[in-house]
Amino acid sequence: MSIKKTPLYEKHKENGAKFIDFGGWDMPVEYTGIKDEHHAVRNEAGMFDVSHMGEVEVSGEETTKFLQHLLTNNVEDLADNAIVYTFMCYEDGGVVDDLLAYKYNAKKFLLVVNASNVDKDFDWIKKQSVKFDVVVENTSKEVAEVAVQGPKAQEIVQKLTDYNLDDIKFFTFDDGVEIAGVNTLISRTGYTGEDGFEIYTSNEDIGLLFDKILEAGKPLGLKLAGLGARDTLRFEANLPLYGQEISQDITPLEAGLGYFVDLDKEFIGRDALAKQKSEGLKRKVVGFELLGRGLARTDAVVLNSEGEEIGHVTTGYISPTLEKAIGLALVDSNYTKLGTELTLQVRSRKIPAKVISKRFLKSKKK
To answer: Which of 44, 81, 161, 305 could disulfide-link 221, Cβ–Cβ 3.0 to 4.6 Å?
Structure first.
């Protein structure tokens, strides 16, 4: 199977990107360095190519009814042009994917799903839609997208449009917005813990948009950023990554994301999640800090003070912002209290750690 490339692939090569295979896509992992790009997003701004993300349009008379059945979060009460973060779950409560649902109106939604899950998600959505009066269309191949994130994101993008970006509130969007002469859909959700925008357009127009944003942003400190910085940024902001903090085997409740699960409505997986909640969670995702030297690698085993295995690391980094080794781990619920002492088995070493709040950073979003 050949590796896929976004329409901006040649632009990344021109700008000195290093590439990795990410879910079957040849994607830039870094340009000037992960730490450098991370700090640019925290302090000025960074631009990411996120054209690999998937887009699925759902339209028709029963769109809202269908999505109430498909998704864990409530979409019925959403205002037009609002966005909601949500999950699709299997009957047993495991996660098919986490996604953003963009509501145009009651009869039309755009679902933005993870790149590595597009085909699986589309098949799942189509399969679940057969009893509803809806049309489900995978538009992923026609849509390209960049994300501009950081404290100066609005100042940069505003230079390229007459549209007042103050009108795009957090978790809202607008379609048909002209930016640098290009017709776009623009939203304000973010995956970094910073303010910023996601800008969608056609494959044909994304190159021009990319160049214009880069040109407008360079005097303000904008840097191109790859998937490496995207991961360190989302991790510091305690935002989950599919396959790590949530998965087919880790439910939204175990991940501490029950806020996005409305158990007062019927949806696929609702009964299993309601049962899990009523019986009490047997394991949870917690934050931790290493007390000894080292780095907590993903999948490292977590032990209790008696040396018994009680879980595993889902994500671990030396935080570029906090400059200390922290992480997230899925552990037995008896060991989730703040201050609980843990031990991480990292290769042949045992490193002491303790449970801390998952709120590693204060949110700066508008």
So the answer is: 44
Q: What is the dihedral of CA 331, 243, 98, 310, to 10 degrees?
A: -10
Q: Tens of pLDDT along 211-233?
A: 999 999 999 999 999 999 999 99
Half-sphere exposure (CA, 13 Å, Cβ side) for 150? Answer: 27
Can you tell me the distance from the alpha carbon of 41 to that of 230, in angstroms, rounded to the nearest whole number? 9
Domain that holds residue 187: 9-51+142-236
Q: 3-state class of 120 per DSSP?
A: helix
Asked if 70 and 133 sit in the same domain, the reply is yes
**DSSP secondary structure letters along 284-297:** EEEEEEESSSS---
Tokens, residue 27: 């994607």
281 exposed, middle or buried (CB, 10 Å; 0-12, 13-18, 19+)?
Answer: middle
CATH number for 177: 3.30.1360.120
Which of 246, 273, 232 is closest to 38 using CA atoms?
232
Q: Output Rg (C-alpha) for the chain, integer angstroms.
A: 21
